[in-house]
Backbone:
C-alpha cells in the first residue's frame, strides 16, 4: 500500500466490507422488504472518513465536491438529507470500525496510555444555549488550554502515546473527569482485564485516594503531576514533555479534523460527527502503521 488518499479509501472500504461480511449484525437496521440502498454501508463509512480528512465541515459542500471529483470511487452518491440520515443511523457501526482498526495496529499493544478531556464547543450565544436541542446536555465549562469559557461538551479520550484512540466518551462540560474515566472502563471491563500492569498518565484533575485505589484494583498504575501541597510523585520529570504530546493529539482533532466545527445541532448529530472524526484519526494511524510511515499520526498525505 502507498500513503495517499485513494489508497487509504480503498483499504478502508475493503476492511469495513470484510468486517460487515463477518459480522452482518453490525449493519444499521433496515426492513427486509424494500429498496436496497445503492450506497453500501462500507462505502458510507469510507465517504465519511474522506470528508473529515479533506476538511469539509458542510455536508452539502462535501457532496458537491464528491460528485465533481470522486465518482471514480463512488458510482452513486446520495443527496445531503439522505447522507445525513444514513450517517446518524450508522453511529454504532462507526464505533465498531474504530475499535476493529485500532486493534489491527501495532500500537494497540502499547502498555502506556494517556487520558485527557478536550472541549467540544456547540454554540456561543445565550439564545443558542437556551433554545438548542443540546440544552441540558451541553453546559458552560472552562477550557484551561485556551483560557476561555465555552458552552458545549467534553470529549474524554484514552489513547496511546502515538495518538491511537483506545476508548472515549462525550459528556457535558462540567462532568467529573474521574467518574467519567471509571465509567469508560466499566463499560468495557475486558479492556483492562486483558492488560495487567497498564500504565495510565493523566493531568492533575485525575486525583483522589478512592479513585486511585479503584484503578489499582483494576491493575492500572496512575501517573499524574502532584497537586498543590502534595509530595512529588513518581514520573514527575516525564510529565512536561508528555503534556505536550497530549495537547498535540487534541490539536490533531481540532486543527486538522475540525472537531470544534462539527456543525451538530442535535445529540445524535454531534455524537455522529465526533465519531466521524475519531474514526478518521484512527484510520490514518492504521493506514500509516500498515504502510510503515515514520509518523503514525501524520494526516498530511490525506488532506488533499
Residues:
Amino acid at each position: 500500500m502507498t500513503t495517499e488518499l485513494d489508497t487509504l479509501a480503498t483499504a478502508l472500504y475493503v476492511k469495513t466490507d470484510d468486517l460487515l461480511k463477518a459480522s452482518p449484525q453490525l449493519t444499521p437496521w433496515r426492513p427486509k422488504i424494500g429498496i436496497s440502498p445503492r450506497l453500501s454501508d462500507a462505502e458510507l463509512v469510507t465517504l465519511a472518513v474522506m470528508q473529515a480528512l479533506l476538511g469539509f465541515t458542510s455536508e452539502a459542500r462535501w457532496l458537491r465536491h464528491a460528485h465533481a471529483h470522486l465518482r471514480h470511487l463512488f458510482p452513486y452518491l446520495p443527496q445531503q438529507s439522505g447522507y445525513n440520515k444514513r450517517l446518524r443511523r450508522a453511529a454504532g457501526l462507526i464505533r465498531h470500525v474504530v475499535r476493529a482498526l485500532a486493534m489491527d495496529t501495532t500500537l494497540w499493544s502499547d502498555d502506556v496510555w494517556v487520558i485527557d478531556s478536550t472541549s467540544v464547543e456547540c454554540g456561543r450565544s445565550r439564545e443558542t444555549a437556551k433554545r438548542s436541542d443540546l440544552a441540558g446536555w451541553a453546559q458552560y465549562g472552562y477550557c484551561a488550554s485556551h483560557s476561555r469559557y465555552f458552552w458545549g461538551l467534553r470529549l474524554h479520550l484514552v489513547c496511546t502515546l502515538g495518538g491511537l484512540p483506545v476508548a472515549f466518551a462525550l459528556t457535558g462540560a462540567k462532568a467529573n473527569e474521574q467518574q467519567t474515566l471509571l465509567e469508560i472502563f466499566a463499560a468495557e471491563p475486558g479492556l483492562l482485564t486483558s492488560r495487567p500492569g497498564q500504565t495510565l498518565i493523566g493531568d492533575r484533575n485525575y486525583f483522589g485516594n478512592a479513585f486511585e485505589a479503584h484503578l489499582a484494583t483494576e491493575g492500572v498504575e496512575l501517573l499524574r503531576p502532584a497537586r498543590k501541597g502534595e509530595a512529588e510523585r513518581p514520573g514527575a520529570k516525564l510529565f512536561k514533555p508528555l503534556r505536550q504530546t497530549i495537547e498535540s493529539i487534541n490539536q490533531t482533532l481540532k486543527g486538522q479534523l475540525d472537531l470544534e466545527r462539527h456543525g451538530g445541532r442535535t445529540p445524535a448529530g454531534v455524537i455522529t460527527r465526533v465519531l466521524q472524526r475519531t474514526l478518521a484519526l484512527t484510520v490514518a494511524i492504521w493506514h500509516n502503521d500498515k504502510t510503515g510511515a515514520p509518523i503514525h499520526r501524520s494526516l498530511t498525505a490525506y488532506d488533499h
Remarks:
- Residues 110-260 form a domain with the Nucleotidyltransferase; domain 5 fold (CATH 3.30.420).
- The first strand starts at residue 112 and ends at 123.
- DSSP finds eleven helices and six strands in the chain.
- Residues 216 and 222 are 8 Å apart (CA to CA).
